[in-house]
Amino acid sequence: MSEISEFLAELGAGTFEEKLQRTINETASLVMTNNREGEVTIKFKMKPISSSQAKVTHSIDFKAPTLNGQKSEKNTTDTVMYVGQKGKLSLFPENQTQMFDMRGKTEVKS
Question: What is the CB-side half-sphere exposure of residue 2 using CA atoms within 13 A?
Answer without folding.
Answer: 19
